[in-house]
Amino acid sequence: MTRMRHAPLLTLLLTLGAGQADARVRLGEPLPPHPWTSAADREVVVVYSHDCGDLGELWQAVLDSGLPVRAVNAEDIPAPAPAGINPWRGAEATTFARNLKVGAYPTVLLVQGGRVLNAWEGTFRGEW
Asked: Signal peptide: which range, if any (predicted)?
């Protein structure tokens, strides 16, 4: 399987299977309070937990999007993120996920102007 490089935004969403999962995160909603400031108009937020399994292909697809990436490691058990990504952890990270009404980990959010533009929840299989 060939890895995508600098994938356009549409390719990222298709790769993730946007629309296939039953996301409970509400589109158009502002993000709950978080510790980062964003200079980018669009960014990707990955909300995950320790029991997501191997997220290597998911992380690669997200990183290949070329957008800034935020990682939220919820549920109080540390889980790794790719080199260069500093995950937000702890009780506030879990509260962030719950305030979003995340239904499954991992959840990938496309955020524009601080609001959820698109959301995908579920198991990533790396199929495109």
From this structure: 1-23
The mean pLDDT value for 80-86 works out to 93
**Would 88 be classed as within a structural domain?**
yes
Structural domain count of the chain = 1
CA distance 23 to 97: 13
Please tell me the predicted confidence (pLDDT) of residue 15. 55
**Residue 78, SS3?**
coil
Q: Find, among 66, 62, 77, 75, the residue nearest to 109 by Cα.
A: 62
Domain range enclosing 73: 9-20+31-121
What pTM, to 2 d.p., does this model score?
Answer: 0.80
What sign has the CA pseudo-torsion 16, 19, 25, 30?
positive
Those residues whose C-beta lies under 8 Å from the C-beta of residue 31, and which sit 6 or more positions away, are 45, 96, 100, 109, 111, 114, 115, 116
* 94 part of a folded domain: yes
Backbone dihedral angles phi then psi of residue 57, each to the nearest 5 degrees: -70, -35
Residue 124 has pLDDT above 70, yes or no: no
